[in-house]
Amino acid sequence: MKKYNTFYSVPYVLWLLLFVIAPLVLIVYQSFFNINGQLTLSNYREYFGSGTYLRMTFNSIWYAFIITAVTLLISYPTAYWLSQTRHKQLWLLLIILPTWINLLLKAYAFIGIFSQAGAANHFFEFIGIGPQQILFTKGSFILVAAYIEIPFMILPIFNAIDELNPSLVNASRDLGATNWQTFSKVIFPLTLDGVKAGVQAVFIPSLSLFMLTRLIGGNKVITLGTAIEEHFLVTQNWGMGSTIGVVLIVAMVVIMFATGERKKKGGQRR
Amino acid sequence: MKRKWFDWRNIYLWLVFLVLYAPIFYLIFYSFNAGTTMTRFSGFSWQHYAELFADTRMIEIVLDTLLIALLSSLIATIIGMLGALAIYGIKKVWLKNSILSLNNILMVSPDVIIGASFLIFFTFLGLRLGFSSVLLSHIAFSIPIVVLMVLPRLNEMNHSLIDAATDLGATNVQVLTRVIFPFITPGILTGFFMAFTYSLDDFAVTFFVTGNGFETLSVEIYARARQGISLEVNALSALMFLFSLLLIGGYYFIEQYNNSKKARRRNRMGAKLIK
Amino acid sequence: MANTIIKFSGVNKRYGDTMALKQIDFELEQGKFYTLLGPSGCGKTTILRILAGFTDASAGTIEFEGKKINDLPANKRKINTVFQDYALFPHLNVYDNVAFGLVLKKTAKKVIHEKVIEALRLVQLSGYEEREISEISGGQQQRVAIARAIVNEPEVLLLDEPLSALDAKLRTAMQVELRQLQQRLGITFVFVTHDQGEALAMSDEIFVMNAGEILQQGAPVDIYDEPINHFVADFIGESNIVKGRMLADYQVEILGHQFECADAGMRVNEPVEVVIRPEDLVLTTVDKAKLTVTVDTQVFRGDIYEIMSHDDAGNEWLIHSVRKTAVGQQVGIYFEPEDIHVMRFGESEEDFDARLESYEDDADEKV
To answer: From CA C71, how far away is CA B120, in angstroms rounded?
Structure first.
């Protein structure tokens, strides 16, 4: 097979070089140029020197954290109980189905639902709170983001629970554990990998959901993603945009390491 | 596990499903609105569908989007499959792991980073933004998912199958076509399928690299949504939902067909044995 | 040898720093059943893979019908393999699996059909053509694997522990069948196993291997009766091995007693090891005994009692006896001079063979 290996590596290696390594190198390279095309460290100086950027970064991480937490809180029980139903694969398919609807369409639906005379306000009127400004608030941004991310959190958790050997649960019961003890001491620790994968799948995109901040958050929320889009496509300050991009990449790497599965050697096969 | 119909766990699940589907049905519901808002339903009408089908620009965009999705997923599947074979053939563990890490970079990178870095890359190359830059980007971000779908199948494959085929006189090409391909076909199909949906779904990357002349559906919806409500978009989303259901149905049908083919063969054999 | 089909000369195999095979030399004759026997990691499978062409030798030559085949790829060799895990193609049914090699050779459809049907008949799987691999049992899969290999009419069939996944009963049945199949086909079989019983039951000739070397080669009876060293004695069958001293030809001293034996050709007072098989030890009363031991445990095995005992010097003695005794009792054991097998330390196979030959001639002359 040796001869053929080089033959089928060519397109793939080209892709690695051109679309993985080159863009990464270029974004780092670009971050050292200011808007006038001069080689400088000023972007980094500005980023770390001015409170605006740091505050924006902190806010973005904070929002991503809240979105992830809300998503996890809703998703874990869903995944857990889903795995106990009959026809669980069918139900899972129904959970995945909404992800096939374009994200923009879902955001667009919420513009209608959250609008001044929309369904949400009808409901608030009905229970006597009266209409509220929902759209273009931070809350609406978090809700819609969580709504969009929920299936991506459920899926890995469901898989982890589904893979769990049922005799472990029986063993735990047999050894005298209560339902709660079984959950907290056996099921949850064993499905932690699924939770980590879910957190990874939700947290990182949450840092960069610029279209939601624009459509739903009404520019009340500025995430790292929004800032990058702004610099690249509106103010055309690619250098600064790239600098923020580099920060986002670093954040991503940190998250990956924090949630990465540190596989023990000779650990269980997957 | 026995469970009563009104178990609170079931109620929770129903609630989650309700929340997941409500916005989608809300959209579809208002696509039949005779009025022009997504807040008051003033009667049933097909008018927004009529508008949609009369909107040649929109139809063109839909076709472009499908073309991009089909082409990019096809090319990504071929490159990704070759990549998976190449990775499978690597003996050195560190090299394999580093290539896998590189492979996964685009999987975990936020869309804006991919979009921004591709934009810099294309500008650097002097490529005109438009159809080709969008196509290249979609191919690029679909390749790793194909690799990730095919590689586990390859790893699952018993290595002695390759030895056995060679032992029985197969050349390298014959080993590939007669043993490896049939074995990894499910992975290739899943990879293709995933790549296709990735491409259809993508907004952020396309938004960065599309320039002015070329638009995909996501970009168009974004532009229209920023201008406010247009029920033509609702009509479109209803159709897209239908399309998704058809895709799932088709997938399900293929699976059933495969199973029944096996079952038929078994029955035939059973009949033969009885004779 | 007249019809040598395979010849290994000075074959080495190195994996990094470890030598998987050290200087392997042997010749295989056409039409015989050979077994490579040894513990896992002894290099037996490596020899098989080098023969099949899946692995290259680091040094040495491999000849097939007098031609060097080191660089001949596996798909060009007239050698086929039955794999340990069978390696049946899961996407093909029984018929297509067996036909695989013939289809690749672009054999005519009609010929393929005839040959496949015949091969399946040979392994007693007629009527299973349309079955999926997942639908047949392990034993049947194993037969399909054999049919798939022999349908190509190889000169040599390699079998890599093909019986290891089967249950005990089926295994015994398959041993007989494989032996019969080999005789019917008249081709060379090279069988790899770590099961000495299997090796003894099936082979014309056994190669006992350890740590990348062939320790002893010979017919099953010869290897059993005249093991060359401690390892072979221990690996083939059960054995009692004690230290001894050669007093003269046909005289050996064990545990301070002098015994008559059937071995000769060693230095006077040479330290040796002595093997006595448990089934050669006969229980007797203490006064008639050659050795006296105390019984520690006794296990009923159905056909025999397996008795563990020890002598005064602390050596353990395993005795297979049809008569039972009692734990804690002192019993005598008796054995014949030819039940004593004397082994020299570090004797090479050639020296061993030469020595045996020299005094066996003597013995013949005496008679």
So the answer is: 51
**Cβ contact (<8 Å) for B200 and A151?**
no
Give residue-wise pLDDT tens across range C82-96.
Answer: 988 888 888 889 999
* Domain B56-230 sits in CATH 3.90.1310.10: no
Size of interface B-C (CB pairs under 8 A): 74
**Which of B18, B207, B111 lies closest to A150, judged by CA?**
B18
The three-state secondary structure class of A83 is: coil
Please report, for chain B, the start and end positions of each structural domain, with discontinuous segments joined by +. 1-54, 56-230
Q: Are strands C257-260 and C59-64 parallel, antiparallel or unpaired?
A: unpaired
- Contact: B13, A107; criterion CB under 8 Å: no
Contact by Cβ (8 Å): B161, B153: no
Q: Is residue C72 very low, low, confident or very high in pLDDT (cuts 50, 70, 90)? A: confident
CA distances from A108 to A120, C87, C343 (A): 14, 54, 90
Q: Could you report the predicted ipTM of this complex, rounded to two decimals?
A: 0.85
User: Which domains does chain C carry?
Assistant: 4-225 (3.40.50.300), 240-366 (no CATH)
Contact state of B170 with C81 under an 8 Å Cβ cutoff: no
Nearest to B23 by CA among C182, C234, A140: A140
- Cβ <8 Å between B39 and A94: no
Q: Do B204 and A211 touch (CB under 8 A)?
A: yes
**Residue C204: DSSP 8-state:** S
Distance from the C76 Cα atom to the nearest Cα atom in chain B, whole angstroms: 6
C vs A contact (3+ beta-carbon pairs below 8 A): no
**Quick check: C305 contacting B, CB < 8 Å?**
no
Confidence of residue C367 (pLDDT cuts 50, 70, 90): very low
Residue whose pair of structure tokens reads 């032992």 in the numeric block = B167
Q: Which residues on A lie below 8 Å from B86 (Cβ)?
A: 5, 8-9, 12-13
Pair type for strands C33-37 and C188-193: parallel
Asked if the Cβ–Cβ distance from B237 to A102 is below 8 Å, we say yes
Tell how many helices (H) and how many strands (E) occur in chain C.
9, 20
**Residue B103, number of CB atoms within 10 A of its CB:** 23
B81, pLDDT greater than 70? yes
Are C67 and B159 in contact by the 8 Å Cβ rule? The answer is no
> Which residues of chain A have a pLDDT value below 50?
1-2, 262-270
Contact between B169 and C75 using a beta-carbon 8 Å cutoff: yes
pLDDT of B171 reads 87
Give the span between the Cα atoms of A184 and A177, in whole angstroms. Answer: 10
Q: What residues are paired with B217 via a beta bridge?
A: none
For chain A, list the domains and their CATH numbers. Answer: 53-259 (1.10.3720.10)
Task: Kindly report the length of chain B.
Answer: 275
Structure tokens at C178: 């494989």
Report d(CA A61, CA A225) in Å as an integer: 11
DSSP at B33: B
Position C33 scores a pLDDT of 93
Alpha-carbon torsion, ordered B83, B85, B90, B93, to 10 deg? 80
Q: Report which DSSP code applies to C237.
A: S
Residues in chain B with CB shorter than 8 Å from the CB of A3 are 172
- Among all chains, which residue has been given the structure tokens 């050195």? B92
Contact predicate C61/C26, CB 8 Å: no
Q: How many CA atoms lie within 13 A of C82 on its CB side?
A: 28
* Cα of C106 to nearest chain B Cα, Å: 11
**What's residue B263's pLDDT?**
58
Q: Could you write out the DSSP letters of every residue in A104-169?
A: HHHHHHHHHHTSTTSHHHHHHHHTTS-----TTSHHHHHHHHHHHHHHHHHHHHHHHHHHS-HHHH
Decide if pLDDT at C294 tops 70. yes
Which chain B residues touch A256 with a CB distance below 8 Å?
108
In Å, how far from its chain's centre is CA C348?
19
